[in-house]
Amino acid sequence: MIETPIELQEEMPEDMLQRKPKFRVSWQFVFAGVMFLFMYLPILVLTVYSFNASAYSASWEGFTFEWYLKLLTDGRVLRALQNSLTVAFCAVFLSAILGTLMAVGLARYRFPGKSLYIGVSYLPMIIPDIAIAVATLVFLAAVHIRLSVWTIVAAHIVFCLAYIALVVATRLADLDPHLEEAALDLGATPVEAFFKVLLPQLMPGIISGCLLAFVLSMDDFLIASFTSGSGATTLPLEIFSRIRTGVKPDINALSALLIIGSGAIAFAGEFLARKSERKKFQ
């Protein structure tokens, strides 16, 4: 005779029936929590102290929005923000065009020295920023180019180009090459096939790469410090010049806004990447 689950439950001791499964915390969960706390606790403290009413960050004296309102009337900060946005938009725009063409060319064509060219193209992601900064400064001095905002743009294109080309190349590897061939068989020219078939499919990757390059350009300090001229101060350079006399709440507020902006751009890039992945599997 086979016992039913109800009969088995009736035969079990009362203490076993009342016993509930214990919640066990694994060491991986604890380790991940400690690491997140280690990474994001300083950002949280900085954000909290950006609302401190005290003129110094040593002690808490109350809650205020004064330092955020002060940034709106600070001429030096606004000029630095304008320079940073000019550099970032120009560098990303030019890098998006060149990086997309480079990724398509490397994926579609064969030529002598292609492997060497690929390795050299992605070197800016591996080489330390200090090496890029010094090399750019030496080159500009050798050709007698005066340092300005546009020299920062030229230096930022060096690393923005590599990041955008890598993201676009990754997107290009997942596409079906027969779609472009079908467009050519139906009478489209190579230029029409690129703009009407290939480019729309690459657009999510191009946008993701541009968002990544934009954040890197806005946050860059080392390369900009070597390639900026007088009056070409970017936002990271302005922050560094002010913290020499001590960290004040207005710097905390400015840093908090930069962190929030960078995080929003990163989330937007991740959202676009996931959206394109869902469309691909539909």
Question: Helices and strands in order, then pairings?
Answer:
Blueprint: H1 5-11, H2 14-18, H3 27-49, H4 66-71, H5 75-108, H6 114-121, H7 129-142, H8 149-173, H9 177-185, H10 190-219, H11 222-227, H12 235-242, H13 249-281
CATH H level: which superfamily?
A: MetI-like
Q: Which fold does the CATH topology refer to? A: MetI-like fold
Helix and strand composition category: mainly alpha
Unreliable runs, pLDDT <50, ≥5 residues? none
How many domains? The number is 1
Broad shape = globular
Q: What is the CATH architecture assignment?
A: Orthogonal Bundle
Q: How many helix segments?
A: 13
Rg, Å, rounded: 27 Å
Q: Briefly, what CATH class? A: Mainly Alpha
Give the distance, in angstroms, between the N- and C-terminal Cα atoms.
51 Å
Order of helices and strands: HHHHHHHHHHHHH
Helix content: over 70%
Describe the main β-sheet briefly: none
What is the strand content? under 5%
Features:
transport, globular, 13 helices, 282 residues, mainly alpha, Bact_Polyamine_Transport, 74% helix, MetI-like fold
TL;DR of this structure?
The chain is mostly helical and 282 residues long.
Your description of this structure?
This protein is mainly alpha-helical and 282 residues long. The protein has one domain: MetI-like (MetI-like fold, Orthogonal Bundle). Helix content is 74%, strand content 0%. The protein has 13 helices and no strands. α3 packs across α13 and α8 crosses α10. It holds the Pfam family BPD_transp_1.
